[in-house]
Amino acid sequence: MNEELLHNLADLSKQVWGYIYPNEIEVHWSIMIVLYPYLTGLVAGAFILASLVKVFRVKEVQPAYRLAMLTALSFLLIAPLPLLLHLGHPERNFEILLTPNPSSAMAMFGFVYLWYLMVVLLLEIWFDFRRDLIVWGRAASWPLSWFYRAASLFSNDISDAAVRFDKKAVQVITVIGIPSAFLLHGYVGFIFGSIKANPWWSSVLIPIVFLFSAIVSGISLVLLLYMVITPLRGKSLNMACIDKIASFLFYAVIVDFSLEALDFIHRLYESEESIKILSHMVTGKLFVSLFVMQVLLGMVLPLGMIVLVKTVSCSEDLRKLLYFTSAILIQMGIFATRWNVVIGGQLFSKSFLGLTTYKMEVLGLEGLLVALVVLALPLVVLAILIKLMPPWHDEDEPGPAAAGETPATPAELPAPTASAPAPAPDVA
Amino acid sequence: MQRRGFLAGLAAFLAPILGLPFRRARADGPPEQAGGAPPHAAGKPAGKPRRFGMAIQVDRCIGCTRCMDACKAENNVPKEPFFFRTWVEQYTIKTDGELVVRSLKTGNGKPSESVPEREIMRSFFVPKLCNQCDHPPCVQVCPVGATFRSPEGVVLVDEERCIGCRYCIQACPYGARYLHPDTKTADKCTFCYHRTTRDLLPACVEVCPTSARIFGDLDNVASPLTRFKRMKKIHTLKPDLNTEPKVLYSDLDGVVR
Fold first, then answer.
1. B41-46 — which CB contacts under 8 Å span 24+ positions?
2. Which residues of B touch A191 (CB under 8 A)?
3. Among partner residues B83, B161, B183, which is closest to A23 by beta-carbon distance?
4. Subunit contact A101:B144, Cβ cutoff 8 A
5. β-sheet with B52-57: strand ranges across
6. What's phi and psi for A260, nearest 5 deg?
7. What is the pLDDT along chain A (428 residues), one digit of tens a residue?
8. How far apart are CA A296 and CA A139, in angstroms?
């Protein structure tokens, strides 16, 4: 018997308000399950930002396109980790793939995840980087050359025709990718929205709210990363690019805010039997994380900042500062959103007569430290990916230091200037 | 043949009139001795699996918590007060209309009053357990099919297969599931499947001193459960969720969820 768990439960039982069913003292879905929709949301959002470049031809965002794709990949690779850490029997996780229950929303996770990873992200990144991988492979020495050759799946053709085909393939995959990104995060929303036993979750709007908050979080993350990484590389920020991203962020936040407000007003107006306990929860235990962090700091304030930039002519530095601050606030706000959905949905009893408390452990598999590690891991993966496959591709920037051998290529048409095998012997 | 039919009909007719003594006999002794056949086995149509169900007569529960103790002992439920396959709730409606609810502690014997006697307008106990829904949300959401319905309609958990994701615990509207701290898998009432498939009564039914709980085959035409269904006004918990519970309550107050 886990003595620590019993001790914690005994502690928690003293903080119960009203009446809860006796099995409900423990909040079963911990910080790890808060991280899961947060991470997948970032994936979907980053991808959708990237697809703006390819499908909707928003040229201004081009400098951040590859960064957005690699960001999506890094976060997607780590997204299942919190789920795994949360399972009572992580060693049985493969059962979800081997014997899935077709009626379970969660069972579809493995398939949606694999589809998105293999068919959308990896494939698109492969086509987009294929030519560069070949070029880098020819220039690099062992073992990196081997890595690049393996990553390019030993393809060797960088003729104009082949590169044109790559470009077309990227376009097609992006078109498939947009609904897939919607599916990925909409489906995560459905995991919660389809639980009829829980009035805080059970809503048709939840998947859509999840989707738009995902778009918001992904865009703001790419904006943040772009604004941090570019100066670190000793380059100056492309203001047209960040203005455009901030502009998209602004509209996404407005849609997200409207949807969440609609959900809230709808609940309040319908005033079903759960309204009393939910009101008690949002004005009590969820007040700070919902009204202060999610709404005020995470939405209203950043919206105000971007409105300020849009209406008053600000200097570049002020714009950068405001964008950066609002992107950080939005990240915090979206994390609070996930927290409020996942933890909030478990604080009230299904008897609608009482509330329990969530006390996050610090150490332990589902504790704060592990959560911070899980949050940091995608950034580590991203750093490695950027090191190996520099996503800088812009015509007005010189080629990245790590792969200086690569000829700078125009943004929209990465056509090789050198004819096929030329660079390799040159550099060698 | 006609005489046998007549006797069966007579027994069914007289049973509600005989009421308590009849059921007591079943609860006290082995079912075979009390009624000739176990209440949920008798009259079983050949080849068709029985459909287990339970009736709870709220007005009979005295809050002695013997069912809770028996369940914990029989099913290896952790004795700490955070894990229950069955529990008893004490409802007190005060004279000013305020509702006070709490769940009873195990092994306490006589329950104490939750509010001063002078302030009590009405008070009653409600035993709770898994409702063994015919349309169970927990089975629907289990990602690996570790929780399933047996041929008798009992919702069971395969602890060899459960991955401990706790989605079923979230999906259960009745709070009837918990994560077993030793096995790290979901756990819940099984209607004492190991007993009831051998024609014994569930532990909680066996020990109930007032026969507040009646167990049997819902499809059997001549069982105490069927008599209950015929004679009582029946209610189920949270019927709006369309879970189709097979735990049926009589004398249930509207405040109970």
1. B41/B199, B41/B217, B42/B220, B42/B222, B42/B223, B43/B217, B43/B220, B43/B221, B43/B222, B43/B223, B44/B217, B44/B220, B45/B219
2. 167
3. B83
4. yes
5. B213-217, B52-57, B247-250, B234-235
6. -70, -35
7. 678 888 889 999 999 999 999 999 999 999 999 999 999 999 999 999 999 888 888 999 999 999 999 999 999 999 999 999 999 999 999 999 999 999 999 998 888 888 988 889 999 999 999 999 999 999 998 899 999 999 999 999 999 999 999 999 999 999 999 999 888 888 899 999 999 999 999 999 999 999 999 999 999 999 999 999 999 999 999 999 999 999 999 999 999 999 999 999 999 999 999 999 999 999 999 999 999 999 999 999 999 999 999 999 889 999 999 999 999 999 999 999 999 999 999 999 999 999 999 999 888 889 999 999 999 999 999 999 999 999 986 544 544 443 333 333 433 333 333 333 333 333 32
8. 51
- B144 to A19: CB separation less than 8 angstroms, yes or no: no
From A100, which residue of chain B is nearest by alpha-carbon distance? Answer: B144
Domain ranges of chain B: 2-250
Closest Cα in chain A to B106: A22
Distance of residue A227 Cα from the nearest chain B Cα, in angstroms: 38
Distance of alpha carbon A177 from alpha carbon A170, whole angstroms: 10
B176 Rama sector, left if φ>0, alpha if ψ -120 to 50, beta otherwise: alpha
Contact list in B for residue A88 (CB cut-off 8 A) is 162-166, 179, 183-185
Cβ-defined contact of A350 to B177 (cutoff 8 Å): no
For residue A18, give the H/E element and its range: strand A17-18
Query: What residue of B is the nearest CA neighbor of A86?
Result: B165
CATH 3.30.70.20 is right for the domain spanning B2-250? yes
Nearest CA-CA distance, residue B95 and chain A, Å:
19
What distance in Å separates the CA atoms of residue A323 and residue A318, rounded to the nearest whole number?
Answer: 8
Please state, in angstroms and rounded to a whole number, the distance separating the CA atoms of residues A319 and A303: 13
From the list A9, A83, A107, the residue facing B82 with the nearest CB is A9
Pairing of strands B147-149, B120-129: unpaired
φ and ψ at residue B234, rounded to 5 degrees: -110, 145
Residue B185 to chain A, least CA–CA distance (Å): 6
Kindly determine whether residue A88 and residue B103, on different chains, have CB atoms separated by under 8 Å: no
Q: What angle do CA B236, B257, B200 make, to 5 degrees?
A: 50
Closest CB from B141, B145, B181 relative to A2: B181
**What is the distance between the alpha carbons of residues A249 and A243, in angstroms, rounded to a whole number?**
10
**What are the tokens at A153?**
């799946």
Report the alpha-carbon distance of residue B72 to residue B159 in Å, rounded: 18
Q: How far is CA A41 from CA A207, A243, B28, in A?
A: 11, 22, 59
- Please list the residues that pair with B178 across neighbouring strands: B187
Least CB–CB distance from B84: residue in A1, A22, A198: A22
How many residues comprise chain B? 257
